[in-house]
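<purpose> Linking amino acid order to shape
<body> The protein record starts here
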Amino acid sequence: MRYLVFIAVLLFSFNADAFEIRIEDKAVYDVAKADTPEKLEKGLMFVKDLPQNKGMWFDLRNYVKPAMWMKDTYISLDMLFVGCDFKIVDIYQNAEPFSLEKISSEQDFCYVIEINGGESAKHDLQIGDKVLIVVHHKTMLN
């Protein structure tokens, strides 16, 4: 448990706009971080092609009963709802582009990871899978 707390503190103390996540030993994604009201509102709107193994991480800890939607989103997405303990609590597969349907989870969650539609089935992602945040450190060479 201490390890998870350390990861959470580390993740939210650095200012990177993107980082890598690993879901168990099943999948690895480079994700952009949506953590401001503007980034949270825009999300992946207007994106016409999301490269393989890319996605977006939404930090929704400050919102009560948040919901996602596909307004102005051109591509189908899978949404992984992640608890504050960094475990997947729900999965919504193949969200329909341009839909105004509100997408959420009955389970409590703190984060949402959006990836290309079909990725969760392709990698057999399951409720209970652990999400690991990988922070890469860059070094300056003289």
Summary: Residues 64 and 95 are 22 Å apart (CA to CA). Helices lie at 2-13, 37-42, 119-122.
